[in-house]
Every structure is written in structure tokens, then in C-alpha cells.
UniProtKB/TrEMBL annotation:
Gene3D superfamilies, per the entry: EAL domain (3.20.20.450)
Record domain EAL: where: 139-389
GO terms, molecular function: cyclic-guanylate-specific phosphodiesterase activity
Pfam families: EAL
Protein's recorded name: EAL domain-containing protein (Putative c-di-GMP-specific phosphodiesterase class I)
CDD domains given in the database record: EAL
InterPro entries to which the protein is assigned, alphabetical: Cyclic-di-GMP_PDE-like, EAL_dom, EAL_sf
Source domain of life: Bacteria
Source organism of this protein record: Pseudoxanthomonas winnipegensis
């Protein structure tokens, strides 16, 4: 492909748009679909009056003539556009960011163009054979069903308290309330949805819409302390997060009542980028929690460096502690490790009174589970929706 001429200018900007799941779409739905997917993204920006320059089979550059930052607008609008071609549908894994330009005007080889800030989403590699393709299509069907549920207002939040309690004190006090996805559409389970979105590289869309809803709830209720999950794949300081982080910066009292639970069900992508992003959240005043400590892909070096206020011990480990002396010993050791890192250590999955006794004997100072408090809906209901720019594009 020929080189691209991009001159630095005083006004306007060049946006680099990348379709990261292009090869996945080609493998699952055919090469024609993959080409049509990129063309659909280009056409949407072209219709808005922006000039387009092709930069390979999965990237293009759009010139935005107006002053100001449009990266978030187009990040959300393109990511919120299901792609359709010859009866097949899929969601794109897209990043949008300003092009990093050198002092010269180029011309630039397309493969050397880079975005300012941010990292590419982590996707599982394309594999040969029908087994991979079948799972990819099932994951995408689940993601599309979730997208439709968001668009039609069928996704909400329930809140489950995390209670502070010491072994010698029977009085409870809420640390914060965790926001949990509540899906009105049958066939969509929260845990399966998160796993599918992580495999597809779409989990930032899920995390963004939940975070927006939690911030809105905190703005409405000035005494509420609430938390929500952030996948390790979402710990990237890019256009996805400009809106929520700006709201938190403008409202420090809201940020101070927000706890972000980092889940490492998927491997951490870029260690330094993730650490920097968490540092930015802390600087805004947010509390940081580590979810499911002791399971998944938890990296102790990462946990130690980000200095969380809360460590949540996986409910699976509490269940093991209930079954055997060895499990109880391992649970206590993990609680002690968590307590050396954070002031609050939570036992998750406390379902019965006997779980409570074992958890407190293991040394935790906070409890979460059905035996402590059931998830409850809020009034008025907290709805999780696509951002307005996505709804207008859908």
C-alpha cells in the first residue's frame, strides 16, 4: 500500500480507526463480511463529512476538521454499531485515537501509524476448525443479545452490601454496595456474558455502560457508597474512559464514594499501562478493590503496586475452607496476605451461618453473600443503557 500524507495542523485532528477483530470476523463469517465491516465503519464517518484514507485492510485515518477531541464520540459510536452483511451480524472491536505524528508531514507507511495513548484490546487468537468458529459465533450471539438488551432498556443493576464485621463484634456496618448486573432477557447470565465479552475483546463496552450507570446512581444518592467491576482488560487509558473520568474529576465527592473492583478473570495485558490507569483512578479519589483474590490470573506483584483498599477473597476458597482443614488453613493464609496489603479483607460467597463462622475465624473483617444480605434493586430502578451516541447510531 502507498504511503499516506498526513500533515500536522493547528486545528482539527487525524483519527486512526482500527478494526481489531477483522481476522476473527473473516474466519467466522467469511472474508466478504470482514471487508464489508471495515467499509461500514468508513461509511459512517464519511457520512458525517470526514475525509477517509485507507491504511491497510483493517485500519483507516479520518480527518476531523473541527477543533476539539472527537476520539470518544467516534469510539462509542463505532463500537455501538452492530455490523450486518448478507444476513450475518457481529459487533466490531474498534479503537479510535488521534494519530501520533512526527514533526515532518510524512508521507507515512500505513503500518507505522500509531494512536496517541492506549493499547490494543486483547483478543483470543484465531484458530482453525469448526470448534473455535462455533464458540466464537455463540459468544458473538450472546454479545449481540446483550447489546440489544441495552438498547431496549432490559438491563439493570441490583446492589449487594459488603458488611464490616469483626469476630468479636456482632454489629454490622456497610463498607459499600456492589452493583451487580440484572438482566431481564432470558438466556443471558452475567458470569457467562463477562467471559464471552472478554474472549471477544468487547468487555470495555460492558464495563463502560455499568460504570456510567453506577456514577449516575452516586450522583442521585449523595449518601450511597457503591462499587462495580472493571476487567483487567479495561485497565487502558484511552477514549473509552474520557467521559466517566471527566465526571469523576468534576465531582470529587462522587469519586470518593466509588469503589472499582478489578477482576483478573483474564490475564493482565500491559502491566505498566494498567498500573498507570489505576493510579489515575486513585488520584481522582476512587477506592480500589481486588476481586476474587486467589483465583483466576491474579498477579501479586500488580496487587502490591496498586495498593488497593479492599481485597476480596474468592467464594470458592471459602467453600474449600468449609470442606477441609487444609482448605481452612489455606484460606487463613490468603486472608493474612490480603490483610498485609489492604485494610479491608472481604470473604465472598457467605451463604450460610456456618460460612460466616469459618470466614471470621479465618481473619476477614468484611463479609458478602446471601447470609449477610441479598442483592436488591434500587428505587427508582438503575438502568444500564448504551451511551446516547451509541443509541443514535444503532
Amino acid at each position: 500500500m502507498s504511503r499516506i500524507e498526513l500533515a500536522p495542523t493547528a486545528s482539527g485532528c487525524h483519527l486512526l480507526v482500527e478494526l481489531h477483530n477483522r481476522d476473527h470476523l473473516a474466519a467466522a463469517y467469511g472474508e466478504t463480511f470482514a471487508r464489508a465491516a471495515l467499509a461500514a465503519l468508513q461509511w459512517r464517518m464519511h457520512l458525517a463529512g470526514h475525509s477517509i484514507k485507507q491504511a491497510g485492510d483493517r485500519r483507516f485515518v479520518a480527518w476531523i476538521a473541527e477543533a476539539g477531541s472527537f476520539a470518544e464520540h467516534w469510539q462509542l459510536q463505532l463500537a455501538g454499531l452492530p455490523l450486518e452483511h448478507l444476513g450475518q451480524r457481529a459487533l466490531p472491536v474498534v479503537t479510535v485515537g488521534e494519530v501520533r505524528l512526527s514533526s515532518s508531514s510524512g508521507p507515512y507507511p500505513p503500518q507505522e501509524l500509531e494512536r496517541l495513548g492506549g493499547r490494543a484490546p486483547i483478543l483470543e487468537p484465531v484458530q482453525c476448525g469448526w470448534i473455535w468458529r462455533e464458540r466464537y459465533e455463540k459468544d458473538m450471539a450472546l454479545a449481540l443479545a446483550f447489546h440489544e438488551a441495552l438498547r431496549s432498556g432490559e438491563v439493570g443493576l441490583s446492589f449487594q452490601p459488603i458488611m464490616r464485621r469483626n469476630a468479636g463484634d456482632r454489629r454490622d456496618a456497610s463498607l459499600y454496595q456492589e452493583a451487580l448486573l440484572r438482566l431481564d432477557q432470558p438466556g443471558i447470565g452475567a458470569s457467562g456474558l463477562v467471559a464471552a465479552m472478554e474472549r471477544l475483546g468487547l468487555v470495555r463496552l460492558l464495563d463502560r455502560v455499568v460504570l456510567d450507570a453506577v456514577i449516575e446512581r452516586l450522583e442521585r444518592e449523595p449518601t450511597l457508597h457503591a462499587g462495580c467491576n472493571l476487567s483487567s482488560h479495561s485497565l487502558v487509558d484511552d477514549a473509552w474512559w474520557h467521559g466517566p473520568l471527566t465526571r469523576l474529576q468534576e465531582q470529587p465527592t462522587v469519586a470518593a464514594r466509588l469503589t472499582l473492583e478489578i477482576t483478573e478473570t483474564a490475564p493482565l495485558g500491559d502491566f505498566e499501562s494498567a498500573k498507570t490507569f489505576v493510579g489515575r483512578l486513585r488520584a481522582l479519589g476512587c477506592q480500589i478493590a481486588i476481586d476474587d483474590f486467589g483465583e483466576g490470573h491474579t498477579r501479586l506483584d500488580f496487587v502490591r503496586q496498586i495498593l488497593p483498599q479492599v481485597v476480596k477473597i474468592s467464594g470458592t476458597l471459602l467453600a474449600e475452607a468449609m470442606r477441609s482443614i487444609t482448605g481452612a488453613r489455606e484460606f487463613s493464609h490468603l486472608v493474612a496476605l490480603g490483610g498485609s496489603i489492604a485494610p479491608y479483607v472481604v470473604a465472598e460467597g457467605v451463604e450460610r451461618a456456618s460460612d460466616t463462622a469459618v470466614a471470621l475465624a479465618g481473619g476477614v473483617n468484611c463479609l458478602q453473600g446471601l447470609a449477610i444480605a441479598r442483592p436488591a434493586g434500587a428505587w427508582p430502578p438503575s438502568r444500564v443503557c448504551l451511551p446516547p451516541v451509541c443509541r443514535s447510531a444503532a
